[in-house]
Design brief:
about 140 residues, alpha+beta, ATP Synthase, domain 1, 2 domains, CF(1), proton-transporting ATP synthase activity, rotational mechanism, ATP_synth_F1_dsu/esu, ATP synthase epsilon chain
């Protein structure tokens, strides 16, 4: 591997979702803010927010919907361990829209009955569904 390239792997409890070599940069939304990581970056371990991970190459870019987890980067290898993750080709748009609709219903119900736990879970489900839908539109 050349000094100016990265290997990027995304794994979930269900297995490997993404594994590519020769990336020039990855862009992530971490719990501490947005970061971009290029080759020879200092080692990093960071928690991830629900958002798209962008993997940039010389002439293209991949986006992967990542729903939480963390990234570990060292020696030009980025490993993302996510709660769940999907590439745009793997996103079932109808299922994601149904999940969004259900989450919105749960949010309304949680507000009606003042259930903070249900509200928090529903808000996370809504963020995940919106992340998947947003990525599938690109």
């Amino acid at each position: 591997m050349a000094d100016h390239k990265l290997d990027v792997t995304i794994v979930t409890p269900d297995g490997s979702v993404y594994d590519k070599k020769d990336a020039t940069m990855i862009v992530l939304k971490t719990t501490g803010g947005d970061i971009g990581v290029m080759a020879n970056h200092v080692p990093v371990v960071a928690g991830l927010k629900i958002d798209a991970v962008k993997v940039k190459f010389d002439d293209s870019e991949d986006e992967i919907a990542v729903n939480g987890g963390f990234v570990e980067f060292s020696n030009n290898v980025a490993t993302i361990v996510a709660d769940s993750a999907e590439t745009p080709d793997d996103i079932d748009i109808e299922r994601a829209q149904d999940a969004k609709d259900r989450a919105e219903q749960h949010i309304a119900h949680a507000k009606e009955v003042s259930d903070k736990d249900e509200l928090a879970r529903a808000e996370v489900a809504l963020k995940r569904a919106i992340n998947r839908l947003k990525l599938s539109e690109n």
